[in-house]
Automatic annotation (TrEMBL):
The lineage of its organism: Bacteria, Pseudomonadati, Pseudomonadota, Gammaproteobacteria, Pseudomonadales. GO terms for biological process: phosphorelay signal transduction system. It comes from the Bacteria. Pfam families: Response_reg (PF00072). It comes from Pseudomonas taeanensis MS-3. The modification 4-aspartylphosphate is found at D53. This is Fis family transcriptional regulator. The keyword Phosphoprotein applies.
Amino acid sequence: MNKSILIVDDSASIRQMLGFTLRSAGYDVDEAVDGKDGLGKAQRKSYQLVFTDQNMPNMDGLSLIKSLRGLPNYRGTPILMLTTESTDAMKQQGKAAGATGWLVKPFDPPKLLEVTKKVLP
């Protein structure tokens, strides 16, 4: 079975680069333009991994993570923050919200795929 991954980011270029990297490795990828869009997609389809940005309109990444963790089928799903935010305080907030891990933009495609393989069941 193909592993389904949801990318949530308001930057079209980041969604495109991330999507290309993951699709090239054989993953099934859907994209959302912000947290609200991502939450709606996650409620309609089950994903094995979610990548989310922090700073987005309508719903930020931390709010999205908290909302996803409240859904029964996302309690144990890996959720990775992919953001320009890199302060320890922000990372602590991410961990408290339920983020599995943290990657800083710009991302390195081989490292991204390595992390993806580690967290996917």
